[in-house]
Amino acid sequence: MSNPSNLKYTASHEWVKVEADGTISVGITQHAQELLGDMVFVEAPEIGRALKAKEESAVVESVKAAADVYAPVSGTVTAANGDLDASPESINSDPYGAWIFKMKPDNAADVAALLDVAAYQAVVDSEAH
Amino acid sequence: MTTLKQTPLNAAHRAMGAKMVDFGGWDMPVNYGSQIDEHHQVRKDCGMFDVCHMRVVDAKGAGVRAFLRYLLANNADKITIPGKALYSAMLRPNGGVIDDLIIYFMTEQWFRIVVNAGTADKDIAWMKEQAATHAPGLTITSRDDLAMVAIQGPNARAKVWQVLPQTKAATENLVNFQAADCGEYFVARTGYTGEDGFEVMLPKTKVEEFWYALNKAGVPPIGLGARDTLRLEAGMNLYGQDMDESVGPLESGLAWTVDLKSERDFIGKAALLANPPTKKLAGLVLLDRGVLRGHQKVVTQHGDGEITSGTFSPTLEKSIALARIPNAVQVGDTVQVEIRDKLLNAKVVKYPFARNGKGLI
Predict the structure, then answer these.
(1) Which residues from chain A sit within 8 angstroms of residue B290, using beta carbons?
(2) How far apart are CA B16 and CA B209, in angstroms?
(3) Torsion-angle region of residue B49: left (phi > 0), alpha (psi -120 to 50) or beta?
(4) What angle do CA B42, B43, B45 make, to 5 degrees?
(5) Within the 199-228 window of chain B, which residues sit less than 8 Å (CB to CB) from chain A?
(6) Is residue B197 included in any domain, yes or no?
(7) CB contact under 8 A, A41 and B229
């Protein structure tokens, strides 16, 4: 599965989608879900929580391990994907559809400064060596 | 970076699409696809595991039974039918668990022992040291020429007979925990999953061919990830996690394997009698949402405990754990587990959690 070119990425393997209303959706990448394996539990951040960039925000747990999801930019949490409570495995089957939480960024420019698909692919490739 | 040890099936794992991980210094397959699918595959049908990293040890000579009677916490005298196996802890004089292992009684001159990978070298050193004092005529041989594959699940034995028809006559009447020596193939009705099946020991030079033949017969490979969820559901301890040299067998859920009532002396017995345990191993099922993991703190009204192994149970679709908790906590009690600064509720249960294809909770 290739990484969509319309998304932004972080070096810690989150993807970011800019929505029409200016909020962003955050999920974990194909590479991250593959490393973690079968997902069994997702703990989303509380709505209204103010996050700093790179702060631990959500936790995803596979059978194997728990992993932190980091806030890609500073901002405020506006929504959590309740569907993942019942079907956390959709992160495995559809990593770019299964958003974990949404946030309103403090500065839109922070989002624009995140990695594009080519830069993210370079991060993944460098980890493989 | 140190070089990881490889089993003779390393190339086969890679060819079958395994994700490889460092498992105690061994380059081993953690899964080949979905770990949960692999788990269900074993409970419902069958699968095969590379357990070549485990070590086969042969103890031979006159007096081998008497030596094992003294070396091990369980009583070697319990096994008198040829091929019969016994699970036991091997203890330090202070009662700490050196390893848990399986011994097979073959003849009064030969017992076969299977030990864990990570402890094999220290186990053999300890056995030789004890033999030098108590049974100098014995030979203790590490069978580095042997490989081992576990085939587990309700259909596992039939698949092995399909691939090794020459072993069927000698193995079809084996009871649980009994083995047959079929020349090059040593076939034991044992395992680490809570399902029926065999563990087959065979020459290293033949194991790759055996592995591919099983696969062709419809037995998929299963990784260490599913091996861990299967054994935990089955309520089986993992050495290094649920017990080690810092704890005794009585606080590790192994009282059923320790014989303190008979006259027999064994290494560690005096220490166990002198220090009755204040904690025990118990099963937990998480009532709130989340996943129990090793080392999480367990808060009870009788004092704190700690999870030794925790995971998500694919059979129960709940999180389960083994935890070392104060003796006074009873089955049915609710305790709290600290997960990321929150206290979540868990129920104390009698384990195993699942065996023979079914959840037991």
Answers:
(1) 41, 43, 61
(2) 14
(3) beta
(4) 60
(5) 225
(6) no
(7) no
User: Which two tokens mark B45?
Assistant: 């049908």
Question: Residues of chain A whose C-beta is under 8 A from some C-beta in B?
Answer: 37-38, 40-41, 43, 59, 61, 63-64, 66, 85, 92
User: Predicted confidence band at A127 (pLDDT cuts at 50, 70, 90)?
Assistant: confident
Domain ranges of chain A: 8-127
How many CB atoms within 10 Å of residue B294? Answer: 16
What is the ipTM metric for this complex? Answer: 0.91
Across the interface, of B30, B36, B289, the residue whose CB is closest to A41 is B289
Pick A37's closest partner by Cβ from B225, B289, B314: B225
- The answer to whether residue B343 scores a pLDDT higher than 70 is yes
Q: Report the share of chain B in percent with pLDDT over 70.
A: 99
On the question of pLDDT at B334 being above 60, the answer is yes
Q: How many domains does chain B have?
A: 1
pLDDT value at residue A129:
60
What top-level class would CATH report for the domain A8-127? Answer: mainly beta
> In this model, does residue B1 exceed pLDDT 90?
no
